[in-house]
Every structure is written in structure tokens, then in C-alpha cells.
Amino acid sequence: MVRLATEKTRVQVQIGGEEYTFRTTADPEYLHGLASYVSAKMEELQKSNAGVNKERLGVLCALSIADELFRLREQYERLTSLLEKEWEKRARERGRS
């Protein structure tokens, strides 16, 4: 769970060897976790795309993470639908007893 503060604080993180400063209400540990994930994804993509400049690498990284997000949303929607159908089925079965 993301804990939000009431005031913005400055948080410095490293992504892809570069340092970035963010002003945010999010928990600094959460932001560090996000930065670590993005940095690891960039390193992974750099290995399979040698010679790609940082700008293109950033775009590849964004697309890769967006793909993960869309796939997870799709799975979530399928699971939610399955659960709703199961709940409806059980409610109907209880109504018959």
C-alpha cells in the first residue's frame, strides 16, 4: 500500500545510472522501489539492445512496463469476472436451499 504524506518531500533516486529528484507525497521507500524496478528493467533491455541510446532505451522500458500493466489488468479483469460468476452461482444455490 502506498502511504501518502500531507506535504511533498524531495526524494532522490537513481535510474539507469542517472540521479533524479522528485517532489512527492508518496513514501520515499515506495519511490525508491519504483526507481529500482525501472532501473533493473532498463539494464535488462540494455543487454538485449546493445548500442541503443538512453532515449530509445527509456521508450523501450516504458513500452515494456506498459505491456506488463496491460497484461496484469487483463488478468485482473478475467479473475474478477470469474469470481463474480462464482459468487452469483453460490447465491443462486443458497436461494434454492
Please characterize this protein's 3D structure:
- It is built from 2 helices and 2 strands.
- By secondary structure, the protein is an alpha+beta fold.
- The chain has a domain at 4-70.
- It has a two-stranded antiparallel ribbon.
- Helix 1 crosses helix 2 (54-96).
- The chain is flat, with a radius of gyration of 20 Å.
- The model has no long low-confidence stretch (mean pLDDT 93).
Structural class: alpha+beta
Order of helices and strands: EEHH
Biggest sheet, spatial arrangement of strands: 1-2
Proportion in helices: 55-70%
Strands, helices and their partners?
Layout: E1 4-15, E2 18-26, H1 28-48, H2 54-96
Antiparallel strand pairs: 1-2
Helix pairs in contact: 1-2
What key attributes describe this structure?
single chain; 97 residues; alpha+beta; two-stranded antiparallel sheet; 2 helices; 2 strands; 66% helix; flat
Task: Write a brief caption for the model.
The chain is an alpha+beta fold and 97 residues long. It is built from two helices and two strands; from the N terminus they run ββαα. It has helices spanning 28-48, 54-96; strands spanning 4-15, 18-26.
